[in-house]
Amino acid sequence: MSDPSSTPCAATTCHRGLREHELANGQTICTPCVHVISVWLQEIPTQIIVLEGSRQRETTGASTGGRTAYRTAPLPGRDDVLTLLGPAAWNDRVRDPYGQAQHDQHGPLPIAGVLIHWVRLISEDRRWNPPAALAPQALAAWLDVPRVLDWAARQPWAGALRDDLYELMRTIRRITCLRPQRRPVPQPCPRCDSLTLVETDHQLYIDCTTCESMYSREELALAARITAAQLEADAA
Question: So what's the pLDDT on residue 68?
Answer without folding.
Answer: 46
